[in-house]
Amino acid sequence: MNIAAFPKYESYQDSGVKWIGKIPASWDVRRGKWLFKRMDRPVRPEDEIVTCFRDGMVTLRSNRRTEGFTNAMKEHGYQGIRKGDFVIHSMDAFAGAIGVSDSDGKSTPVYSACVPRVAGTVEPAFYAYYMRHIALSGLLVAMAKGIRERSTDFRFNDFADLALAAPPIGEQKAIVAFLDGKCATIDEAVRIKEEQIKLLRERRQILIQQAVTRGLNPDAPMKDSGIDWIGQIPAHWEAVPILAVGEVIDPNPSHRNPEYVDEGFPFISTQEFRPGGAIEIDTPRRVSKKTVEEQEDRCKFAKGSLVFSRKGTIGAVRVLPSGIRLGILDSLCVINPNRRVDPTYLFWTLSSDYLVAQYGPTLRGAALPQLSVGRVRSLKIILPPKDEQPKIVQHLERETGKVENAISIKQDQIAALKEYKTSLINAAVTGKIKVI
């Protein structure tokens, strides 16, 4: 994956536009209004809503997803969109919401639906690639500041006045064909690696589940746990409620808002949970000494104290860092393990999938599902004898560490593929490489 391996054009010329720089000698520079015109079509009864997404896809909303959108009571100013239109989302163009529609339909008036000013002289897909390059590289934001200070809109009039590189139509089509093929190959490689990461994460959960419900001795005598979703466990293990192995505390039972300050103590929620069991301490949100002291009066944090999410991302768990004063969001509860359990073993068993089956029928709250602190106390866990717990911890740290390392390698590969894709698009649409 080396951009330098592609051939370059025989000669280049100064475009006369500072931000464009040099372009191939066969290319021209033209303003957006000389290339495209904006359409204003009526809406037809059969038209469905077309959405322009940040990844450059412009398609029927129903093709992508139907949830998470706000539906207008009255569609004031809606316009017709046709397959092949070059579409600019004026309020989201800076984030890459520019593309070519793959469907007929209708859209909000904040979209600019454009067609070539002279049919057959412009390839809309080329300018979709080109304008997304300009947007995602930050050039559009920089130029917009000179157009309208403080505005985050990129309207058709702004596009109309923008100077753009203009290859001959044959080269535009060739660049689009090249990029479509290369991007499809890269996207498929990314999809495969993302699927591999998903399987690795499933493998990690299987390792945890087996270790905390079956132990490390495959020949150990087994017994029925008495819990349908767990099945058999080693005969000398127990099924006990969390309350039997630790104190479960609500850090903020009054649910008063914390006292935020510019300079203060870290404030922890699931947003600060990181892979591998870590907690991000350098948080943007800081709380006052008063907030921390009030929580410390209720929750005597000690080495091995855990936080367990009982709202939103239910079941996420982390071991609190020792020796650091911090505040805790009330969506978390604190678990202080007693002598019956190794704190790190408790972290692993609370991370297992078998707890999830216990949440379902007890979740409260439609908008934000949650468990009460009392319900967290009653959740059943599988408890081996104390002397077996460190061995299980060592096994899980070793084996899940291998999985996490494999995931990290895949994530690095995905990042490299995406960076290469971006570089390839940028090089092709600016003429730094020749693809025909």
TrEMBL record:
Listed InterPro entries: Restrct_endonuc_typeI_TRD, Restrct_endonuc_typeI_TRD_sf, Type-I_RE_S_subunit
Keywords of this entry: DNA-binding, Endonuclease, Hydrolase, Nuclease, Restriction system
Molecular functions per Gene Ontology: DNA binding; endonuclease activity
Any matching Pfam family: Methylase_S
Domain Type I restriction modification DNA specificity span(s) in chain numbering: 237-399
SUPFAM superfamilies the UniProt entry points to: DNA methylase specificity domain
Name of the molecule in the record: Restriction endonuclease subunit S
UniProt family annotation: Belongs to the type-I restriction system S methylase family.
Gene Ontology biological-process entries: DNA restriction-modification system
